[in-house]
Amino acid sequence: MSFSVLHHNHHVAPLSSSSSSIFAQKTFTALRTQVVSVAPKKAAGVCKCVATSPTEQTAYKTKVSRNGNIAKLQAGYLFPEIGRRKAAHMLKYPDAQVISLGIGDTTEPIPEVITSAMAKRALGLSTVEGYSGYGAEQGEKQLRAKLASTFYANLGIEEDDIFVSDGAKSDISRLQVLFGSNVTMAVQDPSYPAYVDSSVIIGQTGEYQKDIEKFGNIEYMKCTPENDFFPDLSKVSRTDIIFFCSPNNPTGSAASREQLAKLVKFAKDNGSIIIYDSAYAMYVSGDTPKSIFEIPGAKEVAIETASFSKYAGFTGVRLGWTVVPKELKYSDGFPVAKDFNRIVCTGFNGASNIAQAGGLACLSPEGLQAMHEVVGFYKENTKIIVDTFTSLGFTVYGGIHAPYVWVHFPGRSSWDVFSEILEKTHVVTTPGSGFGPAGEGFVRVSAFGHRDNVLEACRRFKELYK
Amino acid sequence: MSFSVLHHNHHVAPLSSSSSSIFAQKTFTALRTQVVSVAPKKAAGVCKCVATSPTEQTAYKTKVSRNGNIAKLQAGYLFPEIGRRKAAHMLKYPDAQVISLGIGDTTEPIPEVITSAMAKRALGLSTVEGYSGYGAEQGEKQLRAKLASTFYANLGIEEDDIFVSDGAKSDISRLQVLFGSNVTMAVQDPSYPAYVDSSVIIGQTGEYQKDIEKFGNIEYMKCTPENDFFPDLSKVSRTDIIFFCSPNNPTGSAASREQLAKLVKFAKDNGSIIIYDSAYAMYVSGDTPKSIFEIPGAKEVAIETASFSKYAGFTGVRLGWTVVPKELKYSDGFPVAKDFNRIVCTGFNGASNIAQAGGLACLSPEGLQAMHEVVGFYKENTKIIVDTFTSLGFTVYGGIHAPYVWVHFPGRSSWDVFSEILEKTHVVTTPGSGFGPAGEGFVRVSAFGHRDNVLEACRRFKELYK
After folding, report:
1. Where are the alpha helices (DSSP H) in A412-450?
2. pTM to 2 decimal places
3. Rounded to a whole number, what is the distance in Å from the CA of A421 to chain B's nearest CA?
4. Complex ipTM
5. What sections of A235-335 are H helices per DSSP?
6. CA-CA distance, A300 to B58, in Å (whole number)?
7. What is the largest CA-CA distance in chain A?
8. Contact at 8 Å (CB) between A417 and A443?
9. What secondary structure letter does DSSP report for B298?
């Protein structure tokens, strides 16, 4: 197959040319022979598909050392692990109607005002006027401006403080690359596992200490019912970075204005930087802050990361943003935002333009209305779950400002409870200890689900724990 | 503004509540007073917008040290720098018809067979049946399978070796995070700046050495007309990682089968890992390899990263993939793909589902046909540019297997030629030295442009250099 320079090639075929396939084929045979002579037993034993990948069982290793930081990580990342257990359960009970209130994945369709804007943008890309190539790495100007005016009006956050992204998880990793391996970090215990895991990967931590279930050189800030899920800062050591998620995943608790003011003061006194994860801010009611920048002085000590995932069902569409105020400075006075901009320009090429069109539609009056309805729906689910566990005599936390219910099973192992619930009700939850040692004895029940499924799951919970 | 748990809130307003804005306002005044008392002169001098961000001029600095690796980077990332120069030129000549043959951004509309699939997927997200939340971090199974069969048929690359991403640039950064700071790397000189810059950011390099325009601890593999743009491997020191882009950006040259066989042998002898950037593979004609995996044994020493950007005009849609064969092992025998999977799961949540629907449409028979036509169109542009410079007596390279023409201006500074062309023809190109010191004396002319613009640019080149 060849493409000439001046003529379109109308012969459509797989791109690996037949000549190269033949070439490869010949060599595979040669390699196979070699393999058999080198390690005949292994080859015979492990080999499953000789015809397509005969080199699989060779003993060749590069001389590149495995990244020791990644080797420190424990088992699998939590949510894929839960996915595996769910899959195994479905194999075991092929006829069971499995309901997932586990990984916090949205289930409700995206409002049409938003998807029609994305469809329009997609179709427009087929026209000369509607086509656009590389966008600004930081996001489209109009979207950045609209994010600033919608979420940060009167808070002094401006369009150029906002970096649009493909989601908070990606931005958390980019923030770790930004700060590098020489900073220290604190994290709520329990917390969303990506903070700790990304910190381990970038090399900020020591080894995992099995006995206490913590990594060395991370400050775990215990958040339990005893301290109203807000760390006792008098016992927290100074770190460079403080990850703080509110409303919190997994506990569902939201820090009050007074608590956040304490946190900002703590950061300011220590010269620390807060990375504030506000992915659930729209679930907040009343005067509880929706942004860390509602706290005076926060712009000098905080970064905020946010997402459309849980407001508009964008978990699969992928769109979020991170605010790095120009007031935030390193110890030498250099603006953090300038370096973050460099990270974004070097390692990211902007969020999908179609997703950004969706984001803009989310922020139209109709889009905001529609997102409030989606959030309201999941909050109704939350209430149903809270009421169910409460009626069964459990102590539950969260569920007011967040789509997560944190159910206490005193004295029991979270994974045991997870397994019990899965085995007996076919409902997937998330074991609290997966979020950190202080999550032991809790199970997180997510309110993301179709109403029928939430009601059915609650019926089964009542059956199990009556 | 408050959202009750059980009732939808139909009052739509900016999310920062008015109460909190008032609260913030009060405190800003307090802060301002404080600022003035601390550093009155500075505050008075720098202050631009007291009403909205009165803290901007404060002297507060955190105690967090700036990441020393990022501080090593030189000036701006190349392409934003060119964007700035273009913008300055347009300010200077507001009436000029500026043509960009600079950053390699696609200009032609995306074929309808592809955008209609994306629009359909987007609209489907508003339905119960069509909605999907978090996808697999590695990409949708169907797309991975189709990528394997389309691009790697008979090459032994399987569905689970392929990680779908939001583009090659993001994957290059993720690969740097994968290998970490303790590996050494080699790169073609000249090359796409993201390889070197991402290596600097992750901490693999020494300081920038101004006299030789190179970073310490990077092996620059000179690729010039003298060596047919293929490094003299007998002079290249062993490194852990070898970045290799073919067809090459910026030189437009594509390594032959024999050259790539040498490269694979070199990697194998040294136990190195090749990161092969094949973003322009569809521009290749004849027997020149389109994938490193056409070379026998490459699966044990190579990773390949690829993209839909330059085939389907997806520069703004964002979709690519990276192949990490299960045969590729670290020195301790651990599979590299297992760690890459962990990186992807921890720091990425998959490419946009709408973009993935577009990717699948790209690989349908109609989509492949349409992509070949897009590629064919840009190759026609390339020929026009090659012929123009050749007719003017210039020696040009590239332009056969790639949409880039590498024009030689012997003895001249690349930035001077860039400026001369911009000033006198209003055409944006890219200075060769921006890709590395061996690019000095060259200018890259991109063939991405509407036909009229390419013809007009060539008319102006003929005027300037007649």
Report:
1. 414-425
2. 0.89
3. 23
4. 0.89
5. 257-270, 309-312
6. 9
7. 76
8. yes
9. G
